[in-house]
């Protein structure tokens, strides 16, 4: 089995940057690629190889692609300065596509890359920027078992939980389903805890009650309390950027539901609800974040 010694990370946003830092700290030969000079600067200082095009990442044993949209992924993989354009004779990296996108899009990329001699692992993540920083992500993988085995030492630096979900595309399906539940929990929990504040209740105590009852979810399970969870989410990226991701993820969920039998009024309704969210939701999140105690 081929051992991964060099890793390139394309996309140094709220998730990609902390993931890249962990890989460098773990001793992997790191290359980073991003269009923003400010994102590259910390890695230049730490001794990573800095490149500006995805094609320059093709010499790595493994390439992690952590970009926001399918269009960006297509450009990174297949564009004029993409990975495919940078392939060297007798050498092709294993590609881990770690953003969230439609399963059929990932399967399309896998076929195209395979024809060029590259292998692809479908590997979306859950756990947010905090999980990326702490190495406690959950990674869902789709692909051949032998390819999953190759990337396992890399993923072990990033995630405490790793699940092989099936062939390429299966992990994206699981991630979208996970996002449905996660988004519902985060949005409804915010309004629930805001109601609790207005009625004079203490949020951490309330979360402990929820943890022992049917209201349990990932917000109530946070060890630092619900207020700290919302403060962390607001600090990781702008509210508008986070809301854009929520809308994208719920659109993917709606598309997933439209392709199979069954009626899914709540999934469809969530997508419409997310389109209407704005200042009121931001105000609620900020109100919760303001209650964080200094020790938290």
UniProtKB/TrEMBL annotation:
Domain 6-phosphogluconate dehydrogenase NADP-binding: residue ranges: 7-166
Gene Ontology MF, one: oxidoreductase activity, acting on the CH-OH group of donors, NAD or NADP as acceptor
Domain of life from the UniProt record: Bacteria
Residues covered by the 3-hydroxyisobutyrate dehydrogenase-like NAD-binding domain: 169-282
Keywords tagged on the record: NAD, Oxidoreductase
InterPro entries in alphabetical order: 3-OH-isobutyrate_DH-rel_CS, 6-PGluconate_DH-like_C_sf, 6PGD_dom2, 6PGDH_NADP-bd, HIBADH-like_NADP-bd, HIBADH-related, NAD(P)-bd_dom_sf
Residues that span the membrane, as ranges: none
Active-site residues (renumbered): 175
GO biological process, one term: organic acid catabolic process
Record has Oxidoreductase as a keyword: yes
Keyword Kinase included in the entry's annotation: no
Protein name, per record: NAD(P)-dependent oxidoreductase
Organism annotation: Trinickia symbiotica
